[in-house]
Write a structure and sequence with these properties.
single chain, 97 residues, mainly alpha, 3 helices, 44% helix, 0% strand, PP-bd_ACP, ACP-like_sf, Carrier domain-containing protein
Length: 97
């Protein structure tokens, strides 16, 4: 029997996380650009320091603690992959009203 916390969040939950990630990411960028969930962070000039800043912003906004063991770069290639990690591992759905 699958418990609700063990299930993978539905895709619409990722959309809210992706939007938040892109919002926080836009604050870091020096020049305005079109952002999308599948745009690689590296193509935007976001390096490892930028990723750490982004994670810290998300921790504060979403009120969770990121596990350093999850610092696998496959999760930090773009907003979609980071949203999937936050949804699946941390059971986050987006900012709470």
């Amino acid at each position: 029997m699958v418990q609700p916390n063990d299930s993978v969040p539905e895709a619409h939950n990722y959309a809210a996380l992706e939007a938040l990630i892109l919002e926080k990411l836009a604050l870091q960028l020096m020049t305005p650009t079109t952002l999308a969930a599948d745009v690689p962070f590296s193509s935007l000039g976001v390096d490892s320091v930028g990723v750490v800043i982004l994670v810290a912003e998300l921790e504060s906004t979403l009120d969770f603690v990121f596990n350093p063991e999850d610092l696998d770069m496959k999760y930090f290639s773009n907003a979609a992959s980071l949203a999937a990690l936050l949804g699946e591992k941390y059971h986050l759905t987006g900012p709470q009203a």
